[in-house]
Amino acid sequence: MHLIKADRLHQFVTAVFVSVGFPEHKAKLSADVLIEADLRGIQSHGVARLAGYLRLIDAGRLNPKASFTVHHSKPAIANANAGGGSGLVAAPMAMRIAIEKAELYGVGFCGVSNSNHFGIGAYHAMLAAKQHFIGFASTNASPLVAPFGGKERMLGTNPLAFAFPRKNHPPIVIDMATSAAANGKLEIAERAGKPIPKGWLLNKDGQDSEQPADLKAGGTLLPLGSFSSTGAHKGYALGALVDLLTGVLTGANWGPFVPPFVAFLQPTQAVGEGIGHMIGAIDPAAFQPIDSYFDRIEEWVDCFHNSSPIDADSPVLIPGDPEAALHAHHIETGIPIEPTVWAQLALLAAEHNIPL
Amino acid sequence: MHLIKADRLHQFVTAVFVSVGFPEHKAKLSADVLIEADLRGIQSHGVARLAGYLRLIDAGRLNPKASFTVHHSKPAIANANAGGGSGLVAAPMAMRIAIEKAELYGVGFCGVSNSNHFGIGAYHAMLAAKQHFIGFASTNASPLVAPFGGKERMLGTNPLAFAFPRKNHPPIVIDMATSAAANGKLEIAERAGKPIPKGWLLNKDGQDSEQPADLKAGGTLLPLGSFSSTGAHKGYALGALVDLLTGVLTGANWGPFVPPFVAFLQPTQAVGEGIGHMIGAIDPAAFQPIDSYFDRIEEWVDCFHNSSPIDADSPVLIPGDPEAALHAHHIETGIPIEPTVWAQLALLAAEHNIPL
Prior knowledge:
2 copies of one chain form a homodimer. By secondary structure, the first copy, chain A, is α+β, with helices and mostly antiparallel strands. Chain A has a domain at 181-221: Hypothetical oxidoreductase yiak, domain 3 (Wheat Germ Agglutinin (Isolectin 2), domain 1, 2-Layer Sandwich).
């Protein structure tokens, strides 16, 4: 493991994005999103993906100079076309619009079509929380997940992210794939030659599998809930919800037609433009005075932290606690980078003549 | 099983609600919500609960003559106090407000505090869909569910409901508890003397249990995801999300302090008023012309219906398909009522001198 300080890594990533054609402020913003993922311990969505974004640019599928056009049809709703640009840039721009609307109307949403992978939803939702709004961010993604009762890849891992602001603490942050397990967890098991838990995967014939390699052989990820008896139809419904909001509603591709992140796979039939996001902000002060909201949410947090754990050594956490703790730790110690990812970064450094 | 036509049952339920003090239009509305549940096959939330609502009135915890006061602090947000009245009435009133706001601003939310059980969320969400809005309805509920890693009852089964309008078909309807299984399923297993699947229940010591009686003995329901390996932290996050939106934000009670539905259990410490709902509406025509939305959602539905099922005899469904089919069937045949529920209704008929 290499350890690198967040600000050092940020400079590097920004310079790489600038060197491939992003304007400086968009390069910085993109670096922000990736490094926040690494700081929060979501290595699958951090700088490990940098090379992947660049390959999409090389393949002509991601335009670093894309313009972002916004259509305001109703006061509290906008729908934007990201022009084939990066989701790392489009989602924060959409959140700025959602927040402006929430300031005026109490709530605002901005849909985005014709975009690409937006990194971690938590980053975008937390942008709202920094300004004392409740943030929402969601995206569809290339198909890997079977619908309940099905064996075809019809939905992405379609995450839902929410951030609830607190006064003197990091926000409560929910950021969850609507599948039982993330693809990255299967990749880790496959590299380690280990079986995976029941409830993550079906093989290509729709049978339960504990062999991670079955995914690449045409299998599908299971929705949250995993089994019929434990509510897999609910995880399917959540994945469908995300696809309807981010794909069908915005004008992006949806379901099995969402373009893949990996550049060597070609998009299939187009039923819209690019991938889609839905970004929203709600003003908690529209419901009660903001200080009352802050008092109530602290009471809520304390109450859950103080509830009885199963294991006395593992207190009950609130969503976002583990990631906030990792963030604080990584700011202090530096961000750990896996050897294979470090080698990728070193290659990019050499290729673009940027010191790492 | 007794079979009774929906309109006949509606007359009866309306008359009962009138006889205990509801104004006629609120009695009708309440009957609408309960009978829609039975029509959709959600017997746990239909007329089986009628006697329960009446007991809450007898106990002085539900006021049939409550007034509903609305505070409009921001153009697209309202927060209402249901005055200790019925959620069956308050939620549709909140939805009317949310829709009015969505007509003007593209999106509207109305929070509700000081309310009671609102029946099925699907009813309220579908009110929006009937007017071509996307509907959202959520409520907190008395605590039964453990947080991830905990063994205390900290959250209700906290449902999320969404309805997406379609042009010539019933809407896509999602209505799901954020627990792995609903309480009603445990009750059915307990009456039948059968064990329950792994992943539904912890006993009072926080150990996995397959004995439904362990719930009443101080156990807890598991969140959607059930196990650590299959994402129980995600179901916990969804239950927390609902509690934050419907309880903390609106001014209602939250978490372990949400008053119980059953009248013989007293509410514990108050941290707010009654139970809370969050009701919302979004105008799909704010994102694209409504006809384009309708075309796209039909393509989406067809695509999912035509995807490969695991079992060739069980095609892939979209959320709400089974309930819409049951609704059509029950309109035709009548609503089947379990003998114990029929006996309850007969008792109410005698007590209030209303023909059943």
